[in-house]
Write a structure and sequence with these properties.
By secondary structure, the chain is mostly helical. It has one domain. Strand 1 and strand 2 form a beta hairpin. Helix 4 crosses helix 10 and helix 6 packs across helix 10. The mean pLDDT is 90. GO terms for molecular function: undecaprenyl-diphosphatase activity. Belongs to the UppP family. It catalyses: di-trans,octa-cis-undecaprenyl diphosphate + H2O = di-trans,octa-cis-undecaprenyl phosphate + phosphate + H(+).
Length: 274
């Protein structure tokens, strides 16, 4: 295996680790990166790689939020934590709309909407929404300031926004869920954390679906590239998540909105010219 392929896998993992958690669309970035950095692999494996490296990103959430995610307690013998179980029920509820559409129409969605036009439009649209919502919320106090305050109705509404991201590449899964959460009065920090937790079943499901379709027929070189990509995504994801939580305690999401608009225009102009 050439060293250049390992460097490519590392770089793609870095891009995934940053863009999966910041609400700026990992798909939009991957489309641009793929124009300049192409893995020397089969098309089938590349599609698997771009999805399964997300498992590395998921592990970062589990590591950082393990105590908040584990529904068991061993402090005074074994017991279940009802608050965490309730949170997981809400997370699963939020994931149902996107899961159903993803399982039934995954290939059709990719064929219809996985193109630079859709990605550009959704980057720009949700960039504008971020700016509009933050301007509208200025001076207002959020009504939901902890994950325990998220109701089942709120969870369903957030899940519907996540569905938009599942259908339209470039929306950004984190971007869509954060926009939805902000619209219904969730604080920025809680919106971000709930989005992180939502990613666990969503990404596991998407990865398993891709692996099942691929058939687990990996060569040794492909497994190595996949591992390297996942490892770099894991390390960078930890840094990206910590950065976002610190950032939004002092700033709003408007900077990400402007970035999305600029990126969307850049993607559109690039493909129109070249």
């Amino acid at each position: 295996m050439e060293h250049i392929e390992i460097l490519k896998a590392i770089f793609l993992g870095v891009v995934e680790g940053i863009t999966e958690w910041l609400p700026i669309s990992s798909t939009g970035h991957m489309i641009l990166v793929n124009e300049f950095i192409k893995l020397n692999v089969t098309e089938a494996f590349k599609q698997v790689f771009l999805v399964v490296i997300q498992l590395g990103a998921i592990l970062s959430v589990i590591v950082l939020y393990f105590k908040k995610l584990i529904p068991f307690s061993f402090d005074n013998g074994f017991s279940l934590r009802s608050d965490v179980l309730s949170m997981w029920f809400k997370i699963i509820l939020s994931c149902i709309p996107a899961s159903i559409i993803g399982i039934l129409f995954d290939d059709k969605i990719d064929k219809l909407f996985y193109n630079y036009q859709t990605v550009s439009i959704m980057l720009i649209t949700f960039g504008i929404l971020f700016i509009m919502i933050e301007n509208s919320n200025k001076g207002k106090h959020p009504r939901i300031n902890s994950i325990s305050e998220i109701t089942y109705t709120t969870a369903i509404l957030i899940g519907i926004f996540q569905l938009i991201a599942a259908v339209f590449p470039g929306t950004s899964r984190s971007g869509a869920t954060i926009v939805g959460a902000l619209l219904i009065g969730v604080s920025r920090t809680v919106a971000a954390e709930y989005t992180f937790f939502l990613a666990i079943p969503v990404m596991f499901g998407a990865s398993l679906l891709k692996l099942f379709k691929f058939g687990l027929n990996f060569t040794g070189a492909e497994l190595y590239i996949l591992f390297i990509g996942m490892l770099s995504a894991f390390i960078v994801s930890i840094l990206a998540i910590k950065f976002l939580i610190v950032y939004i305690k002092k700033h709003d999401f408007k900077a990400f909105g402007w970035y999305r608009i600029i990126l969307g225009c850049a993607v559109l102009i690039y493909f129109l010219i070249f």
